[in-house]
Write a structure and sequence with these properties.
Layout: H1 5-21, H2 32-50, H3 59-65, H4 70-86, H5 92-95, H6 126-129, H7 132-141, H8 145-148, H9 153-169
Helix pairs in contact: 1-2, 2-3, 4-7, 4-9
Length: 170
């Protein structure tokens, strides 16, 4: 008995993608060399689903399956957490980790104080850049104003995935 592509995609999603997505926001800011093994696992899953050989390019398969590459999946998760903070549906400990530029005491009269940007704290180390208080605002601030100002979570998710899909496959 052989599996069809929809069934294979469901299996890959259940056994591989769910593991890649579990707590992947802690991987924000890691070098590509550290994320590469996770990307290879996703590539193997795409090859399984699309019945590709080892020497065939996997990018068209990822595009066809609408699977974001691992680095973009991480950014997606971080932006989703920032969205929950922005609309007031995040846990207090996450909301306390970031600060709107508008609420910063050093910027009350600046134009940046009227935006929905979050303050990105300065760090001295690469390790410090991986903290959610730095990676979250940095990733969030890179989004377009239209996307940032979307308050409906389902719509935000759709547009965010489309944004990262465009970045990944263009």
């Amino acid at each position: 008995m052989s599996l069809g592509q929809p069934e294979a995609a469901q299996l890959a999603s259940a056994f591989v993608l769910s593991r890649l997505d579990y707590a992947n926001s802690v991987l924000a800011g890691l070098p590509q060399s550290t994320i590469a093994p996770l990307q290879r696992a996703q590539n193997a899953a795409a090859r399984f689903v699309c019945n590709l050989g080892l020497r065939e390019h996997v990018s068209p398969a990822l595009r066809e399956l609408h699977w974001l590459p691992v680095a973009f999946r991480i950014d997606y998760k971080v932006c989703l957490m920032m969205h929950y903070i922005h609309i007031g549906q995040a846990p207090v400990y996450l909301a306390d980790a970031v600060q709107l530029v508008a609420t910063s005491s050093a910027r009350p009269g600046l134009r940046s104080a009227t935006t929905s940007d979050y303050r990105v704290p300065r760090t001295r180390t690469k390790l410090g850049e991986r903290a959610f208080s730095v990676a979250g605002p940095a990733t969030w601030n890179s989004l377009s104003a239209v996307l940032i100002n979307t308050s409906d979570t389902a719509r935000f998710k759709r547009h965010l995935k489309a944004h990262f899909y465009q970045l990944a496959f263009s």
